[in-house]
Amino acid sequence: MIFGCVANVSVEEEVKGMIETVVKTFGGLDVMVANAGICPCGPLNVATSLGKSI
Fold first, then answer.
1. Of 7, 21, 28, 54, which residue is most buried, by most CB within 10 angstroms?
2. What pTM does this model have?
């Protein structure tokens, strides 16, 4: 199944809302493809919304 959501990825609250919608609809999130902006590479567990390590 393919499910699409629209959110402005520069607005953190919209991204959180999109993920909450997916989790409510499907019970979890296994794979997410974000096709926007730039991607600073690094471990996901230290990523923040500003692209800086915690």
1. 7
2. 0.53
Alpha carbon 17 to chain centroid distance?
10
Got the DSSP string for 14-50? HHHHHHHHHHHHHSS-S-----SS----S-GGG--TT
Q: Please report where in the chains the tokens 């690094």 appear, as a residue.
A: 42
Q: Are 29 and 19 in contact (CB under 8 A)?
A: yes
pLDDT score, position 27? 92
Give the tens place of pLDDT for each residue, 17-52. Answer: 988 998 999 998 887 776 656 656 677 677 666 655
Paired tokens of 49: 């919304």
- Report angle CA 40, 28, 39 to the nearest 5 degrees: 10
